[in-house]
């Protein structure tokens, strides 16, 4: 006899049904054996050394360092970490999400005004997948979000947060990863900057 449980989770404006792993009971043995859980992963941003990073306006930078185990980070159901990317174990529909936070600080108002004039007026986050099946070198952009900077008159610290989330049909061996327009401003806090997915 098979038993299973499911629940609904509200994510933004979407409602997604989450399925718990099914349990197969063996009446003759009186025991039960759990099947593998559905593929899922949650990566979190570690503390990184940004002193050697030189940001160039107009470029996209892949985030290559993530916590993928320990704390609240994990991979399960056959999904795994590879060079800062989540590798998809099986074809199917997945909910992919990310939250990337940026922090910009200055010590004087003159520095603030100069950075605003010289730097990019926006911060962008890009969700990509890679597979040799796709054109343009195997990379395919799935989603993008841009935030326009808005300096307060009396603020020397500004924090910006980008959130993305959508359902995609992913193929086995797809590699899911994040790019940003400015790597030096990323808030390297595991609870503020993270991304992941789960199969629905």
Describe this structure in words.
The protein is mainly beta and 200 residues long. It is 5% helix and 48% strand. The chain contains 1 helix and 16 strands. The strands form 4 sheets. Strands 7, 9, 10, 12, 13 and 15 form a 6-stranded antiparallel beta sheet that branches. The protein starts with a strand and ends with a strand. Mean pLDDT is 81; it is low at 1-29.
Give a quick summary of the entry.
The chain is mostly beta strands and 200 residues long. The protein has one helix at residues 109-118, and strands at 2-3, 6-11, 14-19, 23-26, 31-34, 40-44, 61-62, 74-76, 80-82, 85-87, 92-105, 122-130, 139-148, 157-170, 175-180, 194-199. It comes from Elysia marginata.
What is this structure's SSE topology?
Elements: E1 2-3, E2 6-11, E3 14-19, E4 23-26, E5 31-34, E6 40-44, E7 61-62, E8 74-76, E9 80-82, E10 85-87, E11 92-105, H1 109-118, E12 122-130, E13 139-148, E14 157-170, E15 175-180, E16 194-199
